[in-house]
Amino acid sequence: MARKPADQSVNREAIIVAAAEVLQKNGYEATTMKDIAAAVNLTAASLYHHFKNKDALLLAVLEVGLEYIIQQTEPIAHSDLPTVEKLRRMIREHIVGLTQNTAVGAAMVFEIRALMSVKAPYRNAHDDDKEAFETFIKRRDSFFLRRDQFENLFRLVVREGVDNGSFRTIDVAIFTKTLLGAHNWVGVWYRPTGRLSGEEIADVIADTMLNGVITSRK
Amino acid sequence: MARKPADQSVNREAIIVAAAEVLQKNGYEATTMKDIAAAVNLTAASLYHHFKNKDALLLAVLEVGLEYIIQQTEPIAHSDLPTVEKLRRMIREHIVGLTQNTAVGAAMVFEIRALMSVKAPYRNAHDDDKEAFETFIKRRDSFFLRRDQFENLFRLVVREGVDNGSFRTIDVAIFTKTLLGAHNWVGVWYRPTGRLSGEEIADVIADTMLNGVITSRK
DNA sequence: TCTATAATCAAATGGACATTTGATTAACTC
DNA sequence: GAGTTAATCAAATGTCCATTTGATTATAGA
User: What is d(CA B107, CA B184) in angstroms, rounded to the nearest whole number?
Assistant: First the structure.
């Protein structure tokens, strides 16, 4: 019956940002559509005008976060900087990104499993629903692929360093996982009010991790 | 009406182990009491004979996992081994523990947030319920405290190393977080069928992390 | 101004659980 | 072997949500 003034600029983008924040606090399952809607001054029903359903909204949140960080790190990985410098900057960008948007950062760590266990629609669903589900699954798989590509950016630089002698002979796969684990964890414990800024934390971690693998002589 | 043979030995312990496994696959919210019950050949109702409710069961799972790993690492932290050796063994024990019980390991990472957002019982609850809730909250807070104590074991050893010159002058807090982040992440990606065993992974990571902080000369 | 489309909402709908209730049986104690 | 306790279950209960439905109002074109 009633209506909101139309200048509210509640678009897809705004909903995604708000959703990320709510998700960070409560986690996917504990977050209701009503919660998310309230964060943008809408009702739950209105969200369905912008997103097919709750799963699609979660996926959108994660996609935005992932694309952002890939956008930040990919150019560095493909630049012609010295390998050590490349890795240092990539670590820095990743961590700073996580601390600047802890909502998305935490979602990337915690909510991915929610995506994995999305359940199929009811057996007596319409063909439309089944088709929509297929589409969703495809999109979700693309997301996972993209996430692997992101990890691969780091892996490639690490391998490059080993190959050109910048780094010691280390296990590339394990070191990459170790690195990303350390990064992701920052998104979990970081607080804007803490002793160090995101940049400072990034520098400290980059130093430590690089120090562990840089070739001493040469 | 019917009954199960009594030799099934479905005790608290067995339920906790099974619950950890189910939780690992689906996450707390997506796991139903029925799922957990099925894993031990019971009905959901029967679980309430062993645990007050779902939250209490989750807490029990996490408590067991945490106590186990503390039991493994605390003696090392307090031993009179050289600092470097202490830290190496602690890293090793932690990671090996995580790979041996990936269920609990993943739960420690993913499900802690579920614990944090436990909601109070209904407003019109009996006094009994309210009291039980208080008790639960206390127990949960003890768990968080215990988790901090665990982290502190690592922090103390790192500080000791800095103080006695075994380690470079690093930021103790950040390095500890970095270390634990790398460890926890192993619980997320490790697969028993992978290229390396838990022990091998532990050794590789310990080497890398220690290499980053050990004093070169001396 | 009319019309189509985009946003929005209030109020149902429907299901999926967590939890309770009220038996029923096994096993142990005395 | 009578009584008590521990385990178990089937069947309700009650709530909480995601999602749908059916209006209602803006806004942008024509």
Answer: 10
d(CA B1, CA A216) in angstroms, rounded, equals: 73
Reduced to 3 states (helix: H, G, I; strand: E, B; else coil), residue B87 is helix
What are the CA-CA distances from residue A129 to residues A12, A63, A84, A123, A133 (Å)? Answer: 22, 22, 50, 10, 6
Superfamily of domain A1-51: Homeodomain-like (1.10.10.60)
List chain B domain ranges: 1-51, 56-211
Pick from B30, B117, B204: CB nearest A26: B117
Read off the pTM. 0.89
Closest nt by CA–C1' to A30: D17
Percentage with pLDDT > 70 across chain A: 90
Partner residue opposite B117 with nearest CB, options A27, A170, A181: A27
Interface residues, strand C, Cβ cutoff 7 Å: A 1-4, 6, 8, 10-11, 37, 41-46, 49-50, 122; B 1-3, 5-7, 31-34, 44-45, 48, 53-55, 129
pLDDT digits (tens, 9 = 90+) for B103-112: 777 777 888 8
Taking only the tens place, the pLDDT of each residue in B118-152 is 877 665 566 667 778 888 999 999 999 999 999 99
Hey, are the CB atoms on A205 and B174 less than 8 Å from each other? yes
Judge: A174–B201 Cβ closer than 8 Å, yes or no. yes
Q: What percent of chain B has a predicted confidence (pLDDT) above 70? A: 90
**Contact in structure between A172 and A162 (CB atoms under 8 Å):** yes
Is there a shared CATH topology between the B1-51 domain and the B56-211 domain? no
CA(B185)–C1'(D7) in Å?
A: 39
Q: How far is the CA of B124 from the C1' of C23 (A)?
A: 28
CATH topology for A56-211 is Tetracycline Repressor; domain 2 (1.10.357)
B75 Cβ contact partners less than 8 Å away, ≥ 6 residues apart: none
